[in-house]
Amino acid sequence: MGFLVQFVVFMLFPWFLSVRAEENYSSQHCDFPAIFNFGDSNSDTGCMAAAFYPEVLPYGETFFHEPVGRASDGRLIIDFIAQHLGFPFLSAYINSIGTSYRHGANFAAGSSTIRRQKRTVFEGGTPFTFEIQVAQFNQFKARTRKFFNQDAQGKNSFRGHFPRPEDFAKAIYTFDIGQNDIAAAINKVDTEDSHAVISDIVDYFENQVQTLLGLGARTFWIHNTGPIGCLPVAMPVHNAMNTTPGAGYLDQNGCINYQNDMAREFNKKLKNTVVKLRVQFPDASLIYVDMFSAKYELISNANKEGFVDPSGICCGYHQDGYHLYCGNKAIINGKEIFADTCDDPSKYISWDGVHYTEAANHWIANRILNGSFSDPPLSIAHSCRAQ
């Protein structure tokens, strides 16, 4: 018996030391001085509103009580990330009125894609691709350094408005982009090789992350894309379909299977790329966050979590194939329709059929920030220490 006990102790002792080391390791919080965010409308805090047409009510009604450039009734996941890390909300990079970039900047823009698209802004495209966002960041970093050098010579005083030059290497870089690329690929699924397209999208993403690594970024918090087949505006219940969807078209939550499968393929290739970059850049920390699973968990358990059916849309008119988006008016079947909001947005997952409500964003943020959906499984506050 004594030998058996010694053997067990011998086998478990290394494991015990590793657990203790991990506990000590994870107790060390990262001292992030700033956040730099890249993405699409899921994390745009005012870029498109500043560049083109501002949001109108009821956008922003729940938390801000006015439109603030966010595609939601309130806060986005990036807002909850900033709050969790003790920062103010991120200002959009091109929003010049009343902004401060002391703790970072947001380069995300609605409709943005990883790859360049042929569509114009008026066709739903955007000039603010991932490549452009990275170029904007590069300019921001260079001009910030210039201002600080001038300040040291007594020419300017910008220290209270911009990150310090040394903050860029210590900052956390967050990403939520790719959904619009997948949507574009879905629209061309019959005319393009979707597998090749998805591989190309991920390659473009990798190139831009490598550019940021070359510019000194070292901590990356990378969201994969969500279950695009679960966006209510695409569900058959909100579209005029002459036939009932065939077997296998929808899953148990009413989501479109083939669209989610494309998102899953993108996510798998994205994760492989993140793993590859970790090997190439061992001094960097690259966290892969499974947003798909977090969002799908909410959709699957909507009623249990206090939400209405996940196909429900709080703001907008989506009936019989007519899509009138939140805050707009139109004549439909001879009747003037105003796409107003629901009585209680906190009960809905979907705000406008495409974007999430503040309540849903808050629920998702609470699930991802502690590292439950991360690889490696570190909370965002410890994400600088992944390697």
UniProtKB/TrEMBL annotation:
Pfam families, alphabetized: Lipase_GDSL (PF00657)
Keywords from the UniProt entry: Glycoprotein, Hydrolase, Signal
Protein name: Alpha-L-fucosidase
SUPFAM superfamilies reported in the protein's UniProt record: SGNH hydrolase
Signal peptide positions (record): 1-21
Encoding gene per record: LOC100805314
GO molecular function: hydrolase activity, acting on ester bonds
UniProt cross-references to PANTHER family, sorted A to Z: GDSL-LIKE LIPASE_ACYLHYDROLASE, ZINC FINGER FYVE DOMAIN CONTAINING PROTEIN
Keyword match Repressor: no
Family to which this protein belongs: Belongs to the 'GDSL' lipolytic enzyme family.
